[in-house]
Amino acid sequence: MLHRIGFALCSDEPVSQSIPSAASPKEVEPRKSVVRIHFPTRNMTLSYYNDAFDLKVGDIVYVDGKLEGLRGRVVDITYNFKIKLSDYKRVISVADTEVKGEFFFAGSHFVTFDPTVLPYSKVISWFKAPDKGDDIYASGKDDSGFNLNDLSTMEISHDVAERGHNYYMESRVRYICLDGTKGRAIVDGTQIYELEFEYQNDEIRNLTCSCFCSYPCKHEFAAMLQLRETLKLITKNYEAQYQASNYFAAVFKGTLMSIAVDGKETGSILLG
Ligand SMILES: [Zn+2]
What we know:
The structure is a single chain. By secondary structure, the protein is an alpha+beta fold. 19% of the residues lie in helices and 32% in strands. The chain has helices at residues 120-124, 158-169, 218-237, 239-245, 253-261; strands spanning 4-8, 33-39, 44-50, 60-63, 72-78, 91-94, 100-106, 109-112, 145-147, 173-179, 182-188, 192-200, 203-209, 247-252, 268-271. It binds zinc ion.
């Protein structure tokens, strides 16, 4: 039996008033506010000045100052205030947590075959602040590969494999997608790690992780185990959908619930 779940999470506001991002400044100035923001990883709630976004309670935001880079959630908004600006840090970006589309059950994750539902760029904003643009990266490819169905060909040490397996069991591979042969994953470890790889005919090539290990790491091993499981479930249950789109994105159920469902006042879920 196929289990399906559909999401239609939307706010009351018209599309033209959807959450602006730092990259697309609004023509109309947002209303100035002082917002209380809770940072779950620090268990702290602090006040910030905001004049850049139309924020709502429940929005996921990033700030400057000491807590830069940490995910926060808006818990209160005040429009009636008088503050000394130099005393306050600001909200610098808002995550796009609007999710609309159909999801299929696949083990610990939900899977979508529609590339517009959960693109990587949206999901990464749930985990980390946007790059400031002043970091310069270099990458190289040696086209080395291994077989996804025989991870011993990955040349990973026993210890690292065991830690990677634990990450996989804990569903720390929060997101993994495959667009044709191009894959990306987000692994939640000591911090957020971003992975890229190529996949074709059971072969993985050019796997890299943003932890910058020069050898195969636990994040990579965890992502490969998750990829293997998800592909297995897709082949078993949703072959036609996958073949039609040649794309899938899998998101950990807990992530989708905590980001796209919790804290929302409007929206709906259709189970089928
Ligand atoms: Zn890594």
